[in-house]
Design brief:
Largest sheet: 8 strands, antiparallel, barrel
Order of helices and strands: HEEEEEEEE
Shape: globular
CATH architecture of one domain: Beta Barrel
Number of strands: 8
Structural class: mainly beta
CATH topology of one domain: Lipocalin
Distance between the termini: 66 Å
Oligomer: single chain
Length: 143
């Protein structure tokens, strides 16, 4: 019996280490079109967020607050410096006090498939919506 338990320990100890995938590469944010697309997130209160940023600087945020219903924040977004943008909402159903007030938003992480932004010390991590493809860069390719 003792020989069998030693053999089992030896076999278990010989497994190879799990290979970890490197984290996605962080990308710069030099212009608003870098962030364009439809982004989705949720939180621990079961609220869902959908943020659409267009290449010309439009931003439209829908928040589904469960029983409290949906609300929309809509406005413009401009790039200030690498990973720092300013949002000015013209529609503010979710937060009326934010309308026409410049809000600095820091992009703390951007990989093209994920986007984490911080506003007023609060961070939210978004993923590119499954049906959204990033805009092609460079010359168009014929198919």
């Amino acid at each position: 019996m003792r020989l069998l338990s030693v053999a089992v320990v030896v076999l278990v100890g010989c497994g190879s280490a799990q290979v970890r995938k490197p984290p996605p590469k962080e990308l710069p944010v030099n212009q608003i079109s870098d962030l364009s697309g439809r982004w989705v997130a949720s939180d621990d209160m079961d609220w869902s967020y959908e943020m659409t940023i267009d290449a010309k600087g439009g931003i439209d945020v829908w928040i589904d607050r469960g029983r409290m219903g949906r609300c929309e924040q809509k406005g413009t977004i401009i790039a200030l410096a690498d990973k720092l943008v300013r949002v000015i909402y013209t529609r503010g159903e979710c937060n009326p006090q934010a309308v026409k007030v410049p809000i600095d938003m820091l992009v703390t992480s951007f990989t093209g498939e994920s986007l984490t932004v911080e506003v007023g010390g609060q961070a939210r991590a978004y993923q590119r919506a499954p049906d959204d493809k990033p805009a092609a860069t460079g010359p168009a390719q014929l198919q």
